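Materials and Methods. Structural model of MFS transporter. The 522-residue sequence of MFS transporter from Corallococcus soli was retrieved and submitted for structure prediction as follows.
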Amino acid sequence: MSGREESVRGKATVSPEVGPTSSGPEDLPVAPDGVAAADGLSDGAGDVAAAGDVPVGAGGVAAAGDLAVAAGDFAAAGDVPGGAGSVMAADALPFVASGIPKSDGPLVASSAATTAETASAPQGGSWRAQQELWGEPRWRRWVLASSFARLGGTMAPFALLLAGERATGSFAQGAWMASGYAMGMAAAAPFRGRTLDRRRLPGGLRPPLLAQAVVFLALAHACYFKASLWVLLPLSVVGGVVPAGVVAAYRAILPALVPGGRLEAAFAIDAVLMEVQWILGPSMVGMLALAHPTLGVGVIALTGLSALVLNLFLPEREPLPGPRVAATLASLAPFFRGLPRLLYLSSLAVGVSWGVVDAALPPRLVQVGSRPEAWGALTALLSAASAVGGLLYTSTLKGRVTLDGVILRRCMGFLALWGVLLVPLARVTSLWALGAALAAAGLFLAPQAAMQATLLQRQLPDGRQAEGFALSNACFALGLGLGSGVVAVLLETAGPHGALLTAGVLPVLVALGGALAWRSRV
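The predicted structure was written out as tokens:
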């Protein structure tokens, strides 16, 4: 998906199946203000078609894989949408003129309104763009509310592991509880997200946040009184089901709160903020566990209630129009075509690796002569390094639209580096060395998460944004559950160090496979 581009004078044709296409080099539309030349050169005021990072001019940009045409209602398969009224789709994803998604086909990019806002967004340096974003009151309120909603999810795996060990006397059974929580969330998230797409947001988040508080209070009491795994495991699964889709719903309303030209920076900052949650969440669990291992589970209930109150200060987004889709597995098929399929696989790979690390590091710390509660501090270190990496990535965004191919190549490279740098965790034998390995890997975590979110938002139709983001969260949660399950199985045979050897395998395989698959289509 490099940005080799070419545009010549001619006329666009429209296929009834896939929207605007061209039958040859003479059939392509021309921007009214100029002609975009090949190899990234541009001609004409305000209309640019570039090969890498495409600045958004007054006339807008239309860039797509090996072809870009400026300022028109022409959409092509491959890279970033640009120019008012134009929409792009990737790989097998069809596209239509003026950004109106086909209700009966695979997914297309988000609305033309967002694209039009992108075209008119002011240019400036990366720090200026961030300052303008933080100057938006709605963005600041969104950050506060979404942070409390996410905090419980960052606390849950470690909290359940420690509370389960306290209740049952076994880290393996605590790992099963963390796995059950993740699997419950993975199973419910896409369909919960679809339900939330049909509701006013964030008002529609009230029932799941209240249910989260009730379930985790019950789970904290069950762990405190040392209930059996047969009680704790079902409660853990329900604890994953009830808040499923909530985090995705916050991301789904973000385009309604932030101007389109600042969305890429918003998603990048959001990835950094997510790492802040991963610093705070496990650290809080570790500190609370010093008093009692079950306190972390009880605090998760309070985070949901806090988000519920803060939602009152956010504007309501009305449900977007669109046909109702039956809640079946077959209805999810359009999400697994083209570029979204690769993005969801990446989320799964990161989830598996994180699940392995999250479940295997506490007993590994015991092996190297430390305490399992130290995992909270190590998680904070990893997330701090990830936040630094995210900030460095954000500093490269200068109010320009980056082509999908460029973002994807970087994303796959960072995913591979994350996996490779997890391997030393199984070999080093000191607390400091474990921290250094985690910090090195963490540098690449937030940037690739930001890139995934940016690419995914461009592919999802307006009426299924919460569902699409929830499916990404479900893939991560499924991976988290699988990773925890792998540790639960290997802990008694291969030991924590043997389980950790599996952490980096899937990210590297997905990154290599994704890069090769994408290269083969361009």
